[in-house]
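REVIEWER CHECKLIST
Item 1: Sequence provided? yes
Item 2: Single chain? yes
Item 3: Sequence as submitted:
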Amino acid sequence: MTTATDELKQRMRTQYDAAAAAWERRFDWYAEAFGPMCEWLCTAAALQDGVRVLDLACGSGLPSLEAARRVGPAGRVVAGDISPEMVVATRRKAAALGLGNIDVHELDAEHLPFESGSFDAVTCSHGLMFIPDAIGALREMRRVLKPGGRAAVTAWDVPQKSSFVTLAGQAVGKYFPPTPPEPGKPHVFRFSAPGVLERALRDAGFKDCAVQSIPMPIDFDSADAYFGMFVEMAAGIKQKIDALSPADQAGLRRALEEGAKSLAHGNGIRVIATPLGGTGIA
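Item 4: Structure as written out by the authors:
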C-alpha cells in the first residue's frame, strides 16, 4: 500500500531527477558559490586522512567529492542521494576527477543499509529539511557513526537572511501562493527558527550539539542570470513556470527585476545565502 510518505519521496525523486542535468552542468558555479559551506561541513565533520565518511543528499557531488580529497586514498567516502540521476551525476564527476575512493548509491536517509558504527563522520548538505522523518534520519546518522563520530548538517537559516532564496521565491509566490507549512513537515525553512535544528540533533541522541550561521555573498551579472540559475536548479519550479502564459512569464520577470533593485552591486546584483550549520557527536 502506497503511503503519503511514499508519494512525497517519489515526488522528490522525480523533481530532483529532472533537475540533475542542471546541477551537473552548473557544478563549478555551485562549488565556488557554496564553497564556504562545503569547507564548513568538511571541517566541522573533522575530516582527515584515512577516515570513513557518509555523505547524504549528495546531489551532484558536494561535499562528498571534497570529502574524498580530504580523506585521501587511505580513507573512503560513501555518497548517497534519493535521486538516481543525482547519483549518476556524482559518479561521473568523481570519475572525471580521478577519485577512486568514493562509492555513490541511491539511498533513503531514513533507512540506511549500513551496520551500526560503520563511519567516522556523516555529512548532509541541505537535505534534512526535505526528509519526511527528519529525526528518524538523524537517528540513523547517529546509529551508523562510531562512538565519538561527528555529524555535520546544513539547512537554511531564517528567510530574511537569505535573499538568494527569497528574491525568486517572492516573485514566484505572486503566481503560485505558497501554502503555509505544517510544523515539522518538509519545507525549505523547516529548521530556520532559533533552536529548532539544535533541538532536532539532541532529540536524535547527539551530544555536544552546536549551530551557527554561515552567510555567503553570491554575485550575479544580472537579475536575469540569477533567475536562470534558480529556475534550473530549484527542483519543481521550472515545470510550474513553464506552465505560465507568456504574459505571466513576462510579469514574473518584471517582479523579479523590481525585487532585485535593492540588491544592486557593481554592474550586477549581490544576494546572500545563509545556511545554518549544525554539529553533534555520536
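Item 5: Key structural point noted by reviewer: The longest strand covers residues 145-156.
Item 6: Recommendation: ____
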